[in-house]
Amino acid sequence: MEKFALITGSSSGIGLEIAKILAAKGYNIILTARRKERLQKISKAIISDYNVNCDLISCDLSEKNAPNQIYDFCVKNNYNVEILVNNAGYAIPSTFIETSMEDEEKFLRVLGISVIALTKLFLPSMIEKKKGNIMIISSVAAFAPPSSIQSLYGPIKTFMNRFSDSINSNYNKHGITSTAVCPGFTYTEFHSSSGVQKEMDRVPGFLKKTAERVAKEAVSDTLKGKSISIPTKTYKVFVIILKVAPIFIFSLLVKVLAPGRYDKNK
Fold it and tell me: Domain count of the chain?
């Protein structure tokens, strides 16, 4: 049976680069994101460049039934999903009190509930075949105190790390691994589409990494079955500092390293 990798949020950035890397390794690809026309162009390019099958389904993971639509699409086409990449995400640029509950719910559905739902749907077939890799794109924000803008972004990423731990604890014995990938600042459309491009522009250049570099380490660590992946040495060191530094040291650091994210409390 042919092996497939399903990548959410694969129309740009880290998700797109992961799709290319897995295609180069011989995996057939299933792309999913909201922008159908872009997915169609990407699908044609992947088929041409890597000589693999590449199909797509356009849907919005903020909608409750989206994970079921994706799963049913794969079942209908007899796609054996061996790698599930939960990459879709965005951030809300305003402070907690300024954000509507509707927007918070959509945000949590995309970054959290859809990840759980897709994992729950695809996990049984992986267990049956005794083989499967789950990748969850988290963030170094999971290790940092929540910021004043994007206030739920760090907490949901912390939750996703623990969810990934839970999958490993319960299903490693069945040949399943889950890898929480925690990149730092990455050159993608994420910041412009999330309304925080000004903050990203102020981040020191040495902290900004390419999506290709992040994706390369993410795929390597996932295929090795690592429980956590922190791409680049820069952020491996940064996470160690976050774990041990007193809060007042952190407050001083972020004024330089993450400007604008901790100075908008109202």
Answer: 1
Instruction: Please report the pLDDT score of residue 253 as a whole number.
Output: 65
Q: What is the pLDDT of residues 71-114, one digit of tens each?
A: 999 999 999 999 999 999 998 888 889 999 999 999 999 999 99
Instruction: Please check whether residue 232 lies inside any domain of the structure.
Output: yes
Angle between helix 153-171 and 114-129 (nearest 10): 20
Domain assignment of residue 262, yes or no = no
Letter string b/e over residues 70-85, b meaning 16 or more CB atoms within 10 A of that residue's CB: bbebbeeeebebbbbb
Domain hosting 125: range is: 3-257
Extract the tokens encoding 114: 């859809």
* 254-262 long-range contacts, CB within 8 A, separation 24+: 254/144, 256/204, 257/203, 257/204, 257/207, 258/147, 258/199, 258/203, 259/199, 259/202, 259/203, 260/149, 260/196, 260/198, 260/199, 260/202, 261/147, 261/148, 261/149, 261/150, 261/199, 262/147, 262/148
Is residue 238 in some structural domain?
yes
Q: Do 175 and 227 meet the contact criterion of CB atoms below 8 Å apart?
A: no
Per-residue pLDDT tens digits for 189-232: 565 555 555 655 656 666 788 999 999 999 999 999 999 999 99
In a domain? residue 266: no
pLDDT at 264 exceeding the cut of 60: no
What CATH number has the domain bearing residue 77?
A: 3.40.50.720
Lay out the sheet containing 132-137: strands in order across: 54-58, 28-33, 3-8, 80-86, 132-137, 176-181, 228-229
